Amino acid sequence: MRTVLATLSVLCLAALAVAQVPFEQAARDLSSPDAGTRLRTVQILRDAAYPEAAVPLARAVADTQDEIQLTAIAAELNIFLAERVVAKKRVAMVVEVRNPILAEPAFTAGPSVLGALPVPAEVLDALRFAARDNNPRVGLEALYAFGTLGWSPSGAARRELLQRSGADVAALLGAPDPAMRYAAARVLGRLFASRPHDDPIEATVGDGAITALNDNDRAVKTAVMAALGAMRYERAVQALTDLFTFYNKGEVAEAALDALAHIAYSASAPLFTAQLAGTASSTMRAIAIDGLTRLGDPARLTEIRAAADRDHGDAVTLAAAFASAVLENGPVERIVDAVTKPRMRDRARVYIAELASRRAASFGPHLVDPDERIRLELVEALGVAGDSTALRMLDPLLQDRDPQVARAAERAAARLRAAQ
Fold first, then answer.
1. Does residue 180 carry a pLDDT above 90?
2. What is the pTM of this model?
3. How far apart are CA 246 and CA 225, in angstroms?
4. Rounded CA separation 259/255 (Å)
5. Contact at 8 Å (CB) between 291 and 268?
6. What confidence tens digit (pLDDT) does each residue in 278-297 have?
7. For every residue of 62-90, which 3-state class applies, written as one string?
8. Residues 154, 159, 160: CA angle, nearest 5 degrees
9. Which in 276, 307, 326, 382 has the greatest CB count within 10 A?
């Protein structure tokens, strides 16, 4: 942590020195009555990515000028991203290349894009409030930035954040703009995804998401289903079951079944079993296996294996490997190898994330795999799983021959130490 802070401090001081603006002056200039001064200051702080600028910049997120707000949101992201973005640079001293810092791609990339620095509550509150901005672009950037950075807190800080923000994010599920509703559903699923020791989901949040299942935009509807599944909100089981029965097949039916498979409520067992024995697609069958696996009953392995014997599709085979890994501590090789296969990568990542929080040690032998893609995927999964016992497994990776893996291991170790 000290090394990270020291590095960022040097970067900030260098950037401010080039701009000939002391940090204290820059902080004061954020309140300047001149919009041009405020914008230039925010741009300097965005490029410097100095941790101490995070709280002062929170004021700029609520600025009256849209460009200042957007730049401030980018600045907040840049401070906490694992890999700092250089907003603009010159190539061969002639061509200026601009690298935008956008919130939605950072959100989509997942929690591993974050470094280990704690995100102050003032920053998260400012982003949450800005999500209601009158300018739709500002609102979307703020909401996705909130969803990206809001994953970081743990323990008491996480409980307080969820208590403060749940109703606000759920309310955005009713926004007029479908892009905002879609973003709200995704952010809800990211922040409120069930973790050990979480408080029960408040009814205003969970029931608000159930109501949003009636959205007439298919992308929003499926994102809401994913959020309910991530939250493991049991009150949604009946509504999701009804939607699955109504659609029966296709994208929406798959999303409903997948949400039920994540909630893993015992009453859904007959529905999952029916997909194994019926004429369901391989995708549906794989999702049903996931649901039976998460119910936690090893006796289910017999019917899962029978289904896999009948259906040799990649998704079903991988789901059966996940079932074996969870229900009988079976090998994880097939799941690990799947992250190198584009068609199976996303599903394998889900399984690895779940297994990393249950039995991190099983991935130890694979951290020396000759394929750097595998080492990188596992390091990032261990870094966000929250199991501090993985720290000793990450130590050798700090000197990995692949610089990207080594940097990821450093971030993962710092994140696990900070969460202890």
1. yes
2. 0.89
3. 15
4. 6
5. yes
6. 788 999 999 999 999 999 99
7. CCCCHHHHHHHHHHHHHHHECCCCCCEEE
8. 110
9. 382
